[in-house]
Amino acid sequence: MIKLKHLIMLTLATFALAACASEATPEVTDIPLEGEEVVVPTSTPLILPDPVVDNCLECHTDKDKLVALATEEEDHESESEGVG
What we know:
Largest sheet: none
Number of strands: 0
Radius of gyration: 38 Å
Oligomer: single chain
Number of helices: 3
Order of helices and strands: HHH
């Protein structure tokens, strides 16, 4: 029974607050008067960013270029050898 009373009070409070809220009706002031020229806004063209150029695939799939740029692996001493 108490929950029902709380629900009714909450509903009434919501309606009361909604009734006090101001109505946001936009004022129409953009109506052209007689003899006044109507200006229609034109849209500006969309500026697209420059496409990103990715030459990785082109370079890594060129077999001749890979062979020309290939270097032999250097022999590294293992860390366990040497003085110390």
